[in-house]
């Protein structure tokens, strides 16, 4: 029987509920339990796929091809459990399903209402495919009191009555601000937030109190008394020096112990925290450092490249070095005074990440050229690989080489494909179709050339599986031209039609991949491409 932990947030947004959920799941997992984390997003978008990275951060893609909230990335990175389509739901997705059913006449003339139809759909979503799990952690997006989140709160209230008495738990994450002028911590916002939650029929069992300051026992007692929870269940969650310290820090504060106690579990094994001790040891005691330039478009908001940022750090953990990331707006290299040499010369490696649209593309292509000509380690991801191929084609005389994503071109080195094979059979899309859900999404296999650099990076593997999110592909018709100049197609889709990986054997480290390896990297299991890339940067740092 799976037990359910409902995680809500109060007072303000951005308290790090996702990280908290991921850390609690990691702690339960360290005690040998099987866990899964789900995210409920109250907004009306059907999925985050079409939301701007500036508004919502990166879109995290699962193996089964869902475009999900970036919190699912935290969940995967902290637990190693691959997220699925069924782990992220939005109000928009639920309403779409319900309205489609209503149009088909499935409700047989009944009035369709938030209670019970929407709440039933939310409950079904929470309970689905949980039979073989010990704990299901359900994080509710937004803040208690938001209009959009009301149906989710009501569904939780109902579930807490319908399931067994010790089968559910409510964890409420709040803020205990420190008012410098008064020199005091303030518990009132927490009291109000708990009252708001209680007004919706949910009594929290555990309060996780985010604070910049130490919360003394007297304040914890006060919160416990006013908020109707056990004093030990008021857990201080102070700002952590790194996200990787959070599981260990919460364990020290007794979070997992109190969660188990609230469930009435008294025979839980002690946690095995070896992997977190190793990760934090590597993180806090590096033996060197490297500086990587990421030449992209959404450099103003690092959440837009969340997984990439983490994967680069994981590569650093694998090599025991600190990774400094310099975010560079590709557009500056398109301006007369954008001195590319001054910007890129001090770097130990260059990465061009995924992206959409023409803006900044010439700056990215110029960065590829710099890395190729100067023998600086280069990693191109998705759009970055496409830019590497366009740069390579221009170098062998196809001066008009471009992508049809940027407009009509006579030299479509990158173009749209309208058909490809997936596990479900032949997939088709229209060139001008809807933007939502028209991409090659999710895990696809690639075959690696036997004696290639990437095959060695992947430990001698000949077939890999990686996650995709793109509409355009490198045009295999240009293979011969590109290979003539040393840009080798070393990974292909199994049917041989879609280039998946390109590399330059005559360069110290030059790899472009059509997929997103950053989505599968974990702190305790860094992705081999990132370990290899950072190792190349370490080597480069000894040369410059
Ligand atoms: N814009 C490119 C495409 O759609 C690359 C996408 C990406 O980098 N994720 O193919």
Automatic annotation (TrEMBL):
EC number in record: 6.3.4.2
Entry's Gene Ontology cellular component terms: cytoophidium; cytosol
Any single Pfam family the record assigns to this protein: CTP_synth_N
Entry binding sites for Mg(2+): 71, 139
Residues the record lists as binding UTP: 13, 186-191, 222
Protein name: CTP synthase
Extra remark: CTPSs have evolved a hybrid strategy for distinguishing between UTP and CTP. The overlapping regions of the product feedback inhibitory and substrate sites recognize a common feature in both compounds, the triphosphate moiety. To differentiate isosteric substrate and product pyrimidine rings, an additional pocket far from the expected kinase/ligase catalytic site, specifically recognizes the cytosine and ribose portions of the product inhibitor.
Keyword ATP-binding appears in the UniProt entry: yes
Reactions performed catalytically: UTP + NH4(+) + ATP = CTP + ADP + phosphate + 2 H(+); UTP + L-glutamine + ATP + H2O = CTP + L-glutamate + ADP + phosphate + 2 H(+); L-glutamine + H2O = L-glutamate + NH4(+)
Keyword annotations of the record: ATP-binding, Glutamine amidotransferase, Ligase, Magnesium, Metal-binding, Nucleotide-binding, Pyrimidine biosynthesis
Chain residues that bind L-glutamine: 54, 355, 383-386, 405, 471
Enzymatic class: ligase
Family: Belongs to the CTP synthase family.
Biological process, per Gene Ontology: 'de novo' CTP biosynthetic process; pyrimidine nucleobase biosynthetic process
Matches recorded under CDD domains: CTPS_N, GATase1_CTP_Synthase
Highest taxon, organism lineage: Bacteria
MF annotations from Gene Ontology: ATP binding; CTP synthase activity; identical protein binding; metal ion binding
Positions of CTP binding: 13, 146-148, 186-191, 222
Residue ranges constituting the Glutamine amidotransferase domain according to the UniProt record: 301-535
Catalytic residues (UniProt): 382, 516, 518
Modulation of this protein's activity: Allosterically activated by GTP, when glutamine is the substrate; GTP has no effect on the reaction when ammonia is the substrate. The allosteric effector GTP functions by stabilizing the protein conformation that binds the tetrahedral intermediate(s) formed during glutamine hydrolysis. Inhibited by the product CTP, via allosteric rather than competitive inhibition.
Glycoprotein keyword on record: no
Domain CTP synthase N-terminal: 3-264
Residue numbers spanned by region Amidoligase domain: 1-265
Function text: Catalyzes the ATP-dependent amination of UTP to CTP with either L-glutamine or ammonia as the source of nitrogen. Regulates intracellular CTP levels through interactions with the four ribonucleotide triphosphates.
